[in-house]
UniProtKB/TrEMBL annotation, chain A:
It comes from Marinomonas polaris DSM 16579. It comes from the Bacteria. One of its GO terms (molecular function) is ATP hydrolysis activity. The lineage of its organism: Bacteria, Pseudomonadati, Pseudomonadota, Gammaproteobacteria, Oceanospirillales. This is Amino acid ABC transporter ATP-binding protein, PAAT family. InterPro entries: AAA+_ATPase (IPR003593), ABC_ATPase_HisP-typ (IPR030679), ABC_transporter-like_ATP-bd (IPR003439), ABC_transporter-like_CS (IPR017871), MetN_ABC_transporter-like (IPR050086), P-loop_NTPase (IPR027417). PROSITE patterns: ABC_TRANSPORTER_1, ABC_TRANSPORTER_2. Keywords: Amino-acid transport, ATP-binding, Nucleotide-binding, Transport. Residues 10-245 form the ABC transporter domain. It is a peripheral membrane protein. It holds the Pfam family ABC_tran. GO terms for cellular component: plasma membrane. Belongs to the ABC transporter superfamily. It is found in: Cell inner membrane. CDD domains: ABC_HisP_GlnQ.
From TrEMBL, chain B:
It comes from the Bacteria. It is found in: Cell inner membrane; Cell membrane. One of its GO terms (molecular function) is transmembrane transporter activity. The lineage of its organism: Bacteria, Pseudomonadati, Pseudomonadota, Gammaproteobacteria, Oceanospirillales. This is Putative glutamine transport system permease protein GlnP.
Amino acid sequence: MTNMTDKSIIQARNIEKIYPNGCHALKNVSLDINRGEVVVIIGPSGSGKSTFLRTLNQLETISDGTIHIDEVSLTDRKTNINKVREEVGMVFQSFNLFPHKTALGNVALSPIKVKKKPRAVAEQEGRELLKKVGLAERMNNYPSHLSGGQQQRVAIARALAMHPKIMLFDEPTSALDPEMVGEVLDVMKSLASDGMTMVVVTHEMGFAREVADRVVFMEEGELVFEESPERFFSSDNPRLQRFLGQVL
Amino acid sequence: MEKQPHLLLWKAVFVLIMIGLGFGIYAGSKSIDYTWRWERIPQYIINTEATTVRSPFDGTATIEKGNKLVVTSDYGDDPLVIKKFDNLLVNNGDLVFEGDPLVEVENWNIGPLTWGLVMTLQLSVVSLVFAVVIGLFAGLARISTNPALRYLSVTYIELIRGTPLLVQIFIFYFFIGTVLDLDRFTAGVAALSVFTGAYIAEIVRSGIQSISPGQMEAARSLGMNYVQAMVNVILPQAFKRTLPPMAGQFINLIKDSSLVSVISITDLTKAGREVVSSTFAPFEVWFAVALMYLVLTGALSWAIQRLEKRLSASD
């Protein structure tokens, strides 16, 4: 287990999320994540893992509890959430690229508009990021002319363009054709080896085993179990066993 | 095998129907014993007839060097000097009396129908700009989470869409116009833009709501605030999607502008009515007016189609 000290870049304590319709999505979830750590969250659909991930950049508000990102409280009314979000990149299941912008336009938009970088600088950085994710040739293509795997890699480059300290991945390969999953996971692996702090919601058990420092299992809004990958996959926790039996 | 449709045949059928319609109109006008006088119409669009300049007083005409006509008054008025003319109607040293023709000046005068067209264009363009601004803000307020903004917007849209434009024009001119001391043009523009703005608001709202919520989330997750996300991500996409219904609304605005003739703005329709009363050629005039409206709306829909094509690069 990791020690919960000031090393943690993400501190989520006693998170409760109750939707207006009464659905209790998160029940007393606490999780601390250290700088440079890769945490993979798995669990059946509807277990609250995506909801939890989305609370970390406040795309989802919480009903109770506290979240600190790099020692900034998200629940404090005085916190400028837009500043926090600059530090926390997010990659979505459905890519959510901006269809009216080219790949390069997608990557450069936020640095230009939010960080007020000169266009030439932002585009130069964008070109380097796209090269890094293997899309140097596709810079001027619109998203509609890119495959799913290519779109997701653009989305990763777009998030990286803000130089975040943390990257959140919300089922980044679930909407992809099987042959494209590998190219996205490869980008994520190289990001992990660069020392990026990553929180990944995924069904890719291979990725969890290979890359994760810690694997978290959620079910019915509760954080059931967290462990290093070796111990996680050999655990005899009955709820985890039941789930792994279904997916593996 | 699928049967090949006879495209050429059906195109021929279309042409035949159009010819038949044209003949029907011709035969119809014959049967009511109407004499078509198309030759009376062009002068109300562009008048090329020479205008005659007449003497304002009794006096003597002298032609000075440089082809300059000077008329000296018998009663000590300031002499009349005409430097540019096309036909001289007096000789050097002629005695002229008040009202006598002096010279003819050939120039192109814009006729009343063209002035009407210009007025319609002015009304439409100014109203359009205001309508888009009003519609954009009302549409954004319509989807706002702030109840005050939302209810204001809903009330505005329902009030305007639920009452006839003609009644609104009267209210704007007679009531609001009197209270705020507005001239006809301002009152007309105000009525048209407030009316069209309500429809544009609904188009804007549906356009924004048609953009997937993931777009807003992605923009916000990159650190953009609500306004930045709207301006850079949502509105450009919504704009493209709403172009076809917007085009329809803009065309409606041009046509609706004909209603402001009821508050004595001499737009194309009112000009048409005036020309009818001086030519007694109502059929020709109204056909000409219809054609002029068609030129305006046709040009607009052509321009918007061009824009749509240009924006389709990212499809």
